[in-house]
Amino acid sequence: MTVTLYNQSLSSINSDLTLEFITPKELEVHLHRDLLTQAGFKAESEQLCTLHEHRLLVCALDEQSAEAYRIAMTAALKTSMNYGYTSLKVSTPKERFFSALLDGVLLGSYKFDSYKSKPKVSTLTEVIFAHESTDDFFTFQSIYDQTTVIAKATNFVRNLVNQTPYDMTPQAMAVVAQDLANRNNLECTILDVNGLHEEKMEAMIAVGRASVNPPRLIHLSYKPNNPKKVITLVGKGLTYDSGGLSLKAAASMVTMKMDKAGGCAVMGMIKAISELQLDIEVHAFVGAVENMIGADAYKPDDVLCAKNGKTIEVRNTDAEGRLVLADVLGYAQEKVKSDYIFDYATLTGACMVALGPYTTGVMGHNNALKNSFVEAAEQSGEYCGILPFNRQLKKLIKSELADVCNVSSKPYGGAITAALFLDNFIDEDMKEKWVHFDIAGSAYTESAWDVHTYGGTGAGVRMTLEWLLKLSKEGQY
Ligand code: BES
Ligand code: ZN
Ligand code: ZN
Fold first, then answer.
1. Neighbours of ion ligand 2 (CB under 5 A)
2. Ligand 2 centroid to 275 CA: how many Å?
3. According to the model, what pLDDT value does residue 337 have?
4. pTM for this entry
5. For residue 123, which of 141, 187, 199, 362 sits 20 to 30 Å off, Cα-Cα?
6. Cα(251) to centroid of ligand 3, in Å?
7. What does the pLDDT look like over 269-328, one tens digit per residue?
8. Average pLDDT, the chain
């Protein structure tokens, strides 16, 4: 889909379909009120009506909010793709809603059809935004440029997440990282199993041991001159999570190709950061591993020694993401001294139980930092909710045998106990600078919602970019 922004009036633009957003109040005085009313259109939430004879598509806008615009634009776009029209034009909204409208088009039109033998093609290939005023056109142009980069990075993440575990193995993820590095002028270091042994990353190695697709540790870095801050991003990149010997039930295994979404997200983030040329140094680390079964699989009852020297009692091989992250967090902190460290992981089903399937769980020790992400998420169109730590939950991952246990002794609060497990692998001086994002629910969907179509959503990218853009503007949080 080509999306263009013109400094022209709507009427002067050539297009075969015009989109108009209208509120119930606006409907009362609309030129085609009678026609629309006869068609049953009341301008109620998510209602659409096409007046083909006027080449007009009207879309209800139930409130003046970015979210309403985003959802309405997505719905309008999907409808307009179903007819034979080739282009759609629409006036720009108020400045604060423009980015949401663009997301509706750029993210809402996304479709992953690489595995279809005959992909359906829509005739609609262009969406044109008409912005008549010249006074603030430059502002709209820069919103357009920035939003486009971030949306493309989000779609890049979706493309990676949606690939099958056969295609997107740890080695394949490393190839994607190297290719991104070449295109975007990033530094790229890849460790194979030998490298992981040298770095004493035995927990990560154990998780990947039974797979024919050996693990890779990916480190991408973007280093501008005189950076304002240094940020470390860490992603869980389980290219497949079968559960290991603590094998998942058949139904729960389906969709587990998405367990690499955190790793894919940090690659998308550094892609956008480098394209926007932010004055912030960013390091993205991905633990790309496949959790399988086999004669040499790691077992419940094993004790693993992580990179930072802490020992872990394994009681469930399906709680593998935290083992991989333990080592990658340790590696990242040893290699890079950063101002903040954020990790993104499809870590627990419990996060979905706690917050629902749309919301990312935010955990960490620094309340102000967590709140700043909740705000950034809201600004960017993602949902985030804070899950609080407490001393009692911390006791649940104590181990009689080793330093810490990889699962909790109680079945409740699993998202938080997983984060408290990760806390064991955060250095003392980084405690207040760390935030963990559980994207188990938000990273993937089998039913469309908001700007998300079937599959990977790209969760984390928009909110983190929003946060980083503010950091770049203001210099600190
Ligand atoms: N990858 C899963 C978490 C997950 C579940 C992500 C559903 C997306 C959707 C993770 O590795 C896992 O299996 N976690 C276990 C932890 C348990 C064994 C303590 C879980 O959530 O059941
Ligand atoms: Zn698992
Ligand atoms: Zn997993």
1. 241, 318, 320
2. 33
3. 98
4. 0.98
5. 141
6. 15
7. 999 999 999 999 999 999 999 999 999 999 999 999 999 999 999 999 999 999 999 999
8. 97
State in Å: Cα 349 to ligand 1 middle: 5
* 83-108: average pLDDT: 97
Kindly tell me if the per-residue pLDDT of 45 is higher than 90: no
What the block records as the tokens of 400 is 């009689």
- pLDDT per residue over 9-22, tens digit each? 999 999 999 999 99
Which residue puts its alpha carbon closest to atom 3 of ligand 1? 348
What residue ranges line ligand 1, CB within 6 angstroms?
241, 259, 316, 318-321, 346-350, 407, 414, 440
